[in-house]
User: Fold this.
Amino acid sequence: MPRPIRATIHTQALRHNLQVVQSAVPDARVWAVVKANAYGHGIERVFEGLRGADGFALLDLQEAQRLRTLGWRGPILLLEGAFELRDLELCSRLDLWHTVHSEAQIDMLAAHKTNVPHRVFLKMNVGMNRLGFRPEQYRSAWTRLNALPQVDEISLMAHFSDADGPVGVAVQMETFLAASAELPGERSLHNSAAVLRHGQLPGDWVRAGIALYGSSPDHPEHTGAHWQLQPTLSLNADIIGTQDLKAGDTVGYGSTFVAQAAMRIGIVACGYADGYPRICPTGTPVLVAGTRSQTLGRVSMDMLAVDLTPTPEAGIGDEVTLWGRAKTGAVLPIDEVAACAQTVGYELMCALAQRVPVTVEP
Assistant:
């Protein structure tokens, strides 16, 4: 039989989370961000759940091609734009909208031969200091783009660096509005955190990423449940062995866990080669047959150990939920596991290994 580990994509949860975003910004259109292969879920697997969005946003031209192959005829936005001149040829062929964040990309457009002008999103750097024109350069970049016959409509775009925390978005929003005042074009500003925390701010398009996948963009201040988000990816595995320990027995490589008294543990068919973080320490939460428990000792390549004290009846073949939804309906938020690994839920989703079989629930 196959190794007893499985991931499940919950299509209805994707639909639900998209509706949460749409309800938060009822006057805006929503980009469903599916970069990084839909945050590790798989573009083909999430398409049905997210096709109610107004458009899809991503980075990779091959991923854009996959969306067109699936039958999507609506807008697709390249969030980092073109990397070389020939990328613009594919943008024309696939009818892609794309970000312009540098003079080099304007140069490429000026050299591009096309009969169909491009829809572009001109990006302003309002403080993230990754991509985009500084506010004092923005108008000249817009003027240069607007003069090109290769360019049709220009939308205005920025990305908040602190929408998920106490700094907020007010200063960066003010910077954007001042530098783009009186320039025509639709605006796109909100990421997931801005949608949920600052949804009342102006904007024509929002870019929803992590919220669509059920993870809270401002954890630990707020949980996904606080925002009414549902987990879209569950990772479950079975117990494949048990051990009865006595006081003083140790568990795993390095003997980092020492039993203080007699106890029973389960060995689970999941390890870091499946995408579960090796850095997760003793005490990382799991659900055993839907009941909350914890890991013990170091995570191995193919296995990890869990405490069976809360579920003394559990044994070989019983389900352990590493994150997401258990058969019982109990939920272990991916953000809790990520916090134990000193990271964010995004990374755990993206790290799911190819060897883990994936099922898509309708």
